[in-house]
């Protein structure tokens, strides 16, 4: 699902809301998750899952064009762990 499909699904579920209001809600939702992760925090949505960040150590990489070894700096990356209810839903027969 892409963002526009999400907006359409929400518009169908909430016909009394204007499309601008729905877009604003989606923007605020994702902005708040991103802001919390940037602060080093965690976002838990019960029944869905949890967003957090993990640290990646610096490492040696390889430039695929030249084969040259390059230093890749350490960084924080987003991580998602599905909640129990989500895992059960995904694996339902």
Provide an overview of this structure.
This protein has 93 residues and is of the alpha+beta class. It has two domains: 1-39; 42-61 and 68-93, Irregular (HU Protein, Chain A), CATH 4.10.520.10. 41% of the residues lie in helices and 29% in strands. The chain contains three helices and five strands; from the N terminus they run ααβββββα. It has helices at 3-13, 19-38, 84-90, and strands at residues 43-45, 49-56, 59-62, 69-72, 75-82. The strands form two sheets. Strands 1-2-5 form a three-stranded antiparallel sheet. Strands 3-4 form a two-stranded antiparallel ribbon. The radius of gyration is 19 Å and the shape is elongated.
Q: Given the C-alpha coordinates, what overall shape results?
A: elongated
Which sequence of strands runs across the widest sheet?
Answer: 1-2-5
Report the count of strand segments. 5
> Any idea what the CATH superfamily of the largest domain is called?
IHF-like DNA-binding proteins
Q: What integer is the average pLDDT?
A: 95
Total domain modules:
2
Helix content: 40-55%
- Our estimate of the beta-strand percent is 25-35%
Q: What is the H/E string?
A: HHEEEEEH
């Amino acid at each position: 699902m892409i963002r526009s499909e999400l907006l359409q699904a929400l518009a169908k579920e909430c016909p009394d809301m204007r499309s601008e209001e729905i877009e604003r809600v989606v923007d605020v939702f994702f902005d708040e998750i991103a802001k919390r992760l940037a602060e080093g925090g965690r976002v838990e949505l019960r029944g869905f899952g949890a967003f957090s960040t993990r640290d990646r150590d610096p490492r040696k990489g390889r430039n695929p064009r030249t084969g040259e070894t390059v230093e890749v700096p350490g960084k924080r990356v987003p991580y998602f762990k599905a909640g129990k209810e989500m895992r059960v839903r995904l694996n339902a027969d």
